[in-house]
Amino acid sequence: MPTEPAKVRKVHCPQCNAAILWNVDNPYRPFCSERCKLIDLGQWATGAYRIPQVERDNGQTDDEEQ
Hints:
By secondary structure, the protein is of the alpha+beta class. It has a domain at 9-45: Erythroid Transcription Factor GATA-1, Chain A. It contains one helix and two strands, in the order ββα. It has a two-stranded antiparallel ribbon with strand order 1-2. β1 and β2 (19-22) form a beta hairpin. It is elongated.
């Protein structure tokens, strides 16, 4: 019995929203290009993306020791 070819999904680049195919041939997944990948990396490096601190009931933040 022949095997079915793998289905290729179409996704959107998280940086520029361009439609791309999600497959192993794209070394920049989930981005469309090296440019978008580097822009995203730069935003992480400069602190543009942040994970908010959550205060606990005792007034300490997640990164403080108890």
